[in-house]
Inverse folding.
């Protein structure tokens, strides 16, 4: 009986897995191929990149040419500033609100929470017209602040932190209160340090999504002084400008380099962050 | 509670204070703009000399009579109808493969996930070249099989499809992460048990794996639905909605209407329609998905 059952299982174990592994690797190669091509083309002479001339030599020409064509350093700085502004705002606002929702009973908490939930579906991207009007009204157009402020009140961030705060044992808070810690002091000294991993996860998700954001920054920024990388790249790659693929590849690699490097170095943390964010 | 009312009141005030900054910003950039959109969708386009006037449903009637609207709506529905199932199926396949014990598994996972980390604009820049007629990678490959050049982005039959491919490439790896996580929570004993019972791989997948993955599928589906509205960045690079509106999606059209044609009332009507669509997704989420995601 045993042999009958095991025999097909072992046969499967020998044959099918190799097929699966093959498929997995083939798909992986297919998936990464566009990037691999860009990496190759960026270091080749433009005409060689176009003709797939594998024998031509390596060159850094494209990078220096692409670098000279646009103020990339400024763009990187703008994006960094934007991402950090949003993150700081989100941390402060979401921490305060999550604390309120996690630990206090007050009139209307259910209603306010439902109201907050709505924001998950009222995408800032969809409201660009009125949001632009609001930012213009406040005189924040073409500022990094104006670009960041609509994303600061993040319902998603409140969720994530509220869930984490709820898992902190109440006794810790009571003890701190007995020691004479104020309510905000408890938040700062007990809650925030205990859920540090959640903050890290949230930061990774927030940074990577806003680093890549395009539509809203396009609407708000109108000058080089605020323009983020994505908008700069879209101007650079415009087909009218007749830029070669080698040049585009070089510029693309330059712009995705910081985030991609971060991702490759902290791959595990990134994936876990997205997971934690997804599970919430 | 046995707590005196005074303490409770103090707590209330404190909680409200904590919530104030968040709700001020939420009102400024979500609730008020949403209501304002509804309001301005009912008004005519104002000029310097003549202020906007209340016109009721006139803008809506004009929009519904516009064939472009129906075309763009159809495009967006096709976009969702293709991108969502394909990227989810690929995500599941990727997760199943990335979950296997094999050498270089880290590389495989990384390869699947990396496109997710790129800005859509960067991805579009690369794909733009692949799609270039004659010179592009795609035509060079089809050329090997003796096929003539195809203007993938320049002809109405293929433009939307080409845009979909880029989206799928970008999204599948992202959804994979969630399936991968769900797979890792499934105890391996289940597979052994199924095997002992003589279940085939297909049966195990259908009867055991798929039901266990259902909550994750629902979660991914909601995200994918929202993304099918949100993801339009690549249109700015690849097609600009053309040719002849063949690849135009609703959000791109909103941007165009508002910021290129300066037609605020029409943009408002479109926004209201899009918000209604998102509202439907929200209702779906709360009715069917809430059983799993406990917010309280």
């Amino acid at each position: 009986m045993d042999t009958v059952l095991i025999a097909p299982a072992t046969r499967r174990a020998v044959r099918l897995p190799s097929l699966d592994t093959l498929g997995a690797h083939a798909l992986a190669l297919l998936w990464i191929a566009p990037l691999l091509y860009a990496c190759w083309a960026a270091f080749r002479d433009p005409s060689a990149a176009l003709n797939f001339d594998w024998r031509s030599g390596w060159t850094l020409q494209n990078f220096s040419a692409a670098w000279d064509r646009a103020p990339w350093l400024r763009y990187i700085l703008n994006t960094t500033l934007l991402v950090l502004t949003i993150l700081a705002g989100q941390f402060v606002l979401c921490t305060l609100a999550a604390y309120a929702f996690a630990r206090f009973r007050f009139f209307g908490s259910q209603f306010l929470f439902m109201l907050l939930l709505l924001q998950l579906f009222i995408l800032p991207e969809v409201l660009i017209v009125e949001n632009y009007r609001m930012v213009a009204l406040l005189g924040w157009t073409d500022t990094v602040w104006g670009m960041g402020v609509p994303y600061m009140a993040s319902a998603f961030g409140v969720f994530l932190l509220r869930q984490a705060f709820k898992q902190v044992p109440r006794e810790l808070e009571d003890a701190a209160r007995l020691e004479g810690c104020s309510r905000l002091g408890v938040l700062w000294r007990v809650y925030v340090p205990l859920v540090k991993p959640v903050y890290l996860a949230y930061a990774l998700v927030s940074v990577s999504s806003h680093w890549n954001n395009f539509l809203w920054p396009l609407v708000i920024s109108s000058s080089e002084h605020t323009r983020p990388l994505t908008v700069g790249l879209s101007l650079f790659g415009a087909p009218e400008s007749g830029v070669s693929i080698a040049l585009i590849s070089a510029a693309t690699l330059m712009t995705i380099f910081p985030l991609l490097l971060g991702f490759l170095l902290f791959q595990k943390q990134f994936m876990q962050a997205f997971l934690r964010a997804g599970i919430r | 509670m046995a707590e005196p009312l005074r303490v409770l009141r103090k707590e209330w005030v404190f909680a409200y204070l904590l919530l104030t900054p968040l709700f001020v910003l939420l009102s400024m950039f979500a609730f008020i703009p949403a209501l304002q959109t509804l309001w301005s969708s009912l008004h005519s386009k104002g000029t310097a000399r003549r202020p906007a006037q209340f016109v009721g449903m006139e803008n809506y009637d004009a929009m519904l009579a516009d064939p472009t609207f129906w075309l763009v709506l159809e495009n967006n529905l096709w976009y969702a109808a293709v991108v969502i199932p394909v990227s989810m199926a690929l995500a599941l396949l990727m997760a199943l493969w990335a979950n296997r014990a094999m050498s270089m598994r880290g590389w495989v996972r990384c390869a699947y996930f990396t496109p997710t980390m790129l800005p859509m604009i960067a991805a579009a820049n690369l794909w733009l070249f692949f799609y270039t007629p004659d010179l592009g990678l795609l035509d060079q490959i089809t050329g090997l099989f003796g096929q003539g050049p195809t203007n993938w982005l320049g002809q109405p039959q293929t433009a939307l499809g080409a845009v979909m491919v880029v989206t799928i490439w970008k999204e599948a790896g992202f959804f994979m992460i969630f399936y991968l996580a769900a797979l890792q929570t499934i105890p391996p004993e289940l597979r052994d048990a199924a095997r002992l019972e003589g279940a085939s791989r297909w049966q195990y997948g259908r009867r055991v794996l798929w039901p266990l993955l259902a909550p994750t599928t629902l979660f991914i589906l909601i995200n994918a639905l929202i993304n099918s509205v949100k993801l339009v960045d690549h249109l700015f690079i690849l097609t600009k909605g053309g040719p002849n509106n063949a690849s135009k999606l609703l959000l791109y059209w909103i941007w165009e209407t508002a910021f290129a044609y300066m037609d605020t009332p029409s943009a408002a009507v479109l926004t209201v329609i899009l918000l209604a669509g998102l509202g439907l997704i929200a209702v779906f989420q709360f009715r069917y998905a809430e059983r799993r995601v406990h917010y309280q």
In short: Chain A touches chain B through 97 residues (CB under 8 Å). The radius of gyration of chain A is 25 Å. The first helix of chain A runs from residue 2 to 42. Chain A has 15 helices and no strands.
